[in-house]
Amino acid sequence: MNQKISPPSRGPVDHDVRNQIVEAAAEHFSRYGYEKTTVSDLAKAIGFSKAYIYKFFDSKQAIGEVICSNTLLKITTTINESMDGAPTASERFRRMFKSAIGASVQLFFQDRKLYDIAAAAAGENWNSVANYDLKLKQTILDVLQEGRASGEFERKTPIDETVNAIYFVMKPYLNPLLLQHNLDRAEDTGVMIVNLILRSLAP
Amino acid sequence: MNQKISPPSRGPVDHDVRNQIVEAAAEHFSRYGYEKTTVSDLAKAIGFSKAYIYKFFDSKQAIGEVICSNTLLKITTTINESMDGAPTASERFRRMFKSAIGASVQLFFQDRKLYDIAAAAAGENWNSVANYDLKLKQTILDVLQEGRASGEFERKTPIDETVNAIYFVMKPYLNPLLLQHNLDRAEDTGVMIVNLILRSLAP
To answer: Closest chain A residue to B122 measured between Cα atoms?
Structure first.
C-alpha cells in the first residue's frame, strides 16, 4: 500500500512550531506507541488544539514521516561515515552492510516504541522508506561502479540486476519487520552474507 | 525459544485414533486459527473428552507439530521431486529454490489459517521446523558437493560456510514470518537471488 501524502511543511516561518510538534510527538509515540496514539492524544499531550496541529500536518502519518525520515537519515549518515576512507570497493561494501545492520538494530530495537513507527512505515511503504531504499540502492550502485572500474568486481552481469539482487539479499537485515526475526544473530549472519555477495562479485 | 516436547505417539494400536484427532484438529485450526483454539475447544469439536485427547497428545503443540510436520514434508517432497533429472548442479539448485518458494507460498498462504500454525512453529522453532531446516541444509550440501565434484562450483570456501550463507539468504523466502512481507514478488526476487548465489559459486 503506497500512501501518498502531501508535503507536511506549510512555510518556513512556522519551522519552530513544526519542530516542537515533531519532538513532542516522538516523545509521546516512544512512550505509548505510534499505532495506539491519535492526533487528539497528541494535541492533549502537547497542549495544542487538534486544529492547530492540523495547520502544520495533514495527518498523524505526516508527523510519523518526519520522525521516520530523521531516523533513516541517521542510518544513512552512519553508513556513509563508515565507508569513508575504505581502501577498496570490497571493504566499502563490507562496511556498508555491517554499519547498516548495526545502526538498524540499534535504532529500531533499542527502543521498542520507535520500532512501532518503523514497522508501520515499512509495512505501508511510506515515502520516507521509499526514499531511504532509493538512497541505499544508489550507494550499492556507487560501490559496484567503483569496483567494476578498478577491476575488483566482474562486469558481465547487467549492473541493475546486480544492484537489485544485492538490495533484496540485504533487505531482511534492514527492514524492521524482517529484522525482528533475525535479531539474535544479525551481525554474524551479516558477515557470512557479505562474504557470499563479494564472492558473487568476483571477476 | 526451543520447546522440547516428548514424542506424541503412545503406541501403534492407537494409530487410527491419533490420525482422527490430527485430521479433526487440522480442520478446526484451519477454520478458527491455531492460536485461538484450546484443547477443550478441540475436544468439544471432535466429540472426545479432553482427557481422552491427552491420552494421545501431551499438548495442543504436540498436535500442531504433527500438522506442521505433514505440511513441511509436502514442501520437502515437492523440492526433491523438482530436482529429479536436472542435468547440472546449477540447474538442481535453481529448481530447489524455485520449488521451495512456490510450495511455501502455496501451503502457508493459500489458507491463511495454516499460516497461523506455520507462524507459531517458525516463531518458536518447533522440532518440526528444526528438522525441516536440517533437511534443507543437507539438500544444499548435496548440491554443493555435486557441483564441486563436477568442477561446476568453486572449492576454496569452507563448504559449511557456503551452506550456511546460502541457507540464510534463502530463509526469508521459506520462513512464513518473513515470507509474508515478500509475498508479492517472491518468485521474481527468487530468480534474481538464485542468480546471485550461482555467481557466488562460480569457480
So the answer is: A181
d(CA A176, CA B9): 40
What CA–CA distances, in Å, run from A201 to A55, B71, B93, B167? Answer: 51, 37, 19, 19
State chain B's mean pLDDT as an integer.
Answer: 89
The pLDDT tens digits of the residues spanning A117-163 come to 888 899 888 999 999 999 999 999 999 999 999 999 999 999 999 99
Using CB atoms, pick whichever of A175, A181, A196 lies closest to residue B200.
A196
Pick the closest to residue A131 from A189, A182, A70 (CA basis): A70
How much of chain A, in percent, has pLDDT values that exceed 70? 93
Cβ contacts of B196 on chain A, cutoff 8 Å: 162, 165-166, 169, 197, 200
Instruction: Tell me whether residue B62 is exposed, middle or buried, using C-beta atoms within 10 angstroms of its C-beta: 0 to 12, 13 to 18, 19 or more.
Output: buried
Q: What is the ipTM of this complex?
A: 0.87
Predicted local distance difference test score (pLDDT) of residue A14: 75
Among B172, B195, B202, whose Cβ lies nearest the Cβ of A172?
A: B172
Q: Are residues A38 and A75 in the same domain?
A: no
Regarding whether A102 and A27 lie in a shared domain, the answer is no
Interface test with B, best of A192, A194, A201 (most B CBs within 10 A): A192
Residue A1, pLDDT above cutoff 50 = no
Query: Distance, in angstroms, between B27 CA and closest chain A CA?
Result: 28
- The Cα angle at residue B28 between residues B26 and B32, in degrees rounded to 5: 120
Distance, CA of B78 to chain centre = 11
> If you average pLDDT over residues B74-79, what whole number do you get?
94
pLDDT of residue A99: 96
The verdict on B147 and B189 lying in the same domain is yes
Q: What is the DSSP annotation of A108-122?
A: HHSSHHHHHHHHHHH
Residue A187 maps to which CATH number?
1.10.357.10
Q: pLDDT of A33-42, one tens digit each?
A: 888 889 999 9
Report the residue of chain A nearest B199, measured CA to CA: A200
* Stretch A171-187: mean pLDDT: 90
Q: HSE on the CB side for A79, CA within 13 Å? A: 22
